[in-house]
Amino acid sequence: MFDVHRAVLTCQWCAADTLHEIRYLGRLLAGVRCTKCDTEISQADPGRYLGDLRHRLVTKPRRLLRRLVHDPGEFVRTQPVAALIKPLKMMRELAAVVQAVDARTSPMPVRGREAAGGQE
Predict the structure, then answer these.
(1) Which side of the chain, N or C, has fewer Cβ within a 10 Å radius?
(2) Can you tell me the distance from the alpha carbon of 44 to that of 90, in angstroms, rounded to the nearest whole number?
C-alpha cells in the first residue's frame, strides 16, 4: 500500500511548477507523478525495499517494548487489533511492491496519454 503525499515541484517533462503525487512504499520513495502532464518516474527497487523490510522486522520487538513501557494501557487496548491487521497490511505492501516494479519495467518516463496508447 502506497503512502501518498502531494507537493508542488518543477516537472522535468513539462517544465512547470505543478502539483505532484509522491508515493512512498514503507519508508522508501516509490515514485513521483506530475498531475499536469501525468509523467511518472518510478524509483521502485525491490532490493532496497526488502532490506528496509528486514530492518523493520528485526526492530519490531524493540518498538513493541518501547510502546509497552511508554503506555501499557494503550498497548493492551490496541495490540490485539494490530496483530490481526498487520498481515493484511503486509500483503497490501507487497502487492504495491509488485505494482511499482511492474511500472518500473516500462519505458521511463511514462506519460499518461502515451501509456494509454493515445495521441498527443
Answers:
(1) C
(2) 17
Q: Burial-class residue 63 by CB neighbours within 10 Å (0-12, 13-18, 19+).
A: exposed
Query: Which pLDDT tens digit goes with each residue over 26-74?
Result: 788 888 999 999 988 877 777 888 888 889 889 999 999 999 999 999 9
- Judge contact between 107 and 54, C-beta under 8 A: no
Q: What is the pLDDT of residue 70?
A: 96
Answer yes or no: is pLDDT of 1 > 70.
Answer: no
Cα-Cα end-to-end distance for the chain? 31
CA distance linking residue 18 with residue 14, whole number of Å: 9
Q: Is 42 exposed, middle or buried (0-12, 13-18, 19+ CB in 10 A)?
A: buried
